[in-house]
């Protein structure tokens, strides 16, 4: 899968989170990898001062790391989610 570093691609990734069980927030922080996952509360916090490329890379890494029910995902978001999970 080809990664496109654009605002549109960032919005696609954010849309997957909006349909998932997880809440995505952008906040100030000095997290070592640039993000923090609070699994018990199902909250993902990404450093809001990251560049567009940094935010996209964080969201891609998070989506590959977490598992959630895909029943609520729209067909296009489900396709994107599956592509991310099958990619090595």
In a few lines, what is going on in this structure?
The chain has helices at residues 7-19, 52-65, 75-86; strands at 23-27, 35-38, 43-47. By secondary structure, it is α+β, with helices and mostly antiparallel strands.
Explained architecture:
The chain has 88 residues and is of the alpha+beta class. The chain has one domain (7-86). It has three helices and three strands; from the N terminus they run H-E-E-E-H-H. The protein has helices at residues 7-19, 52-65, 75-86, and strands spanning 23-27, 35-38, 43-47. A three-stranded mixed β-sheet has the order 1-3-2. Helix 1 (7-19) packs parallel to helix 2 (52-65) and helix 1 (7-19) crosses helix 3. The longest helix is centred in the middle third of the chain and has 14 residues, at 52-65. The N and C termini lie close together (10 Å). 16% of the residues are buried. The model has no long low-confidence stretch (mean pLDDT 89).
Keywords:
single chain, 88 residues, alpha+beta, 3 strands
Poorly predicted runs: none
- The class by helix and strand makeup works out as alpha+beta
- In total, how many domains does the architecture comprise? 1
Largest sheet: number of strands, sense, barrel closure = 3 strands, mixed
Give the mean pLDDT: 89
Overall spatial form: globular
Rounded to an integer in angstroms, the radius of gyration calculated over CA atoms is 12 Å
């Amino acid at each position: 899968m080809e990664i496109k570093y654009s605002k549109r691609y960032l919005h696609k990734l954010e849309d997957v989170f909006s349909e998932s069980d997880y809440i995505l927030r952008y906040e100030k922080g000095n997290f070592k990898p640039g993000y923090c996952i609070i699994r018990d509360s199902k909250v993902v916090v990404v450093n809001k001062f990251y560049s567009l490329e940094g935010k996209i890379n964080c969201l891609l890494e998070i989506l590959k790391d977490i598992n959630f029910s895909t029943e609520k995902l729209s067909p296009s978001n489900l396709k994107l989610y599956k592509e991310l999970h099958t990619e090595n």
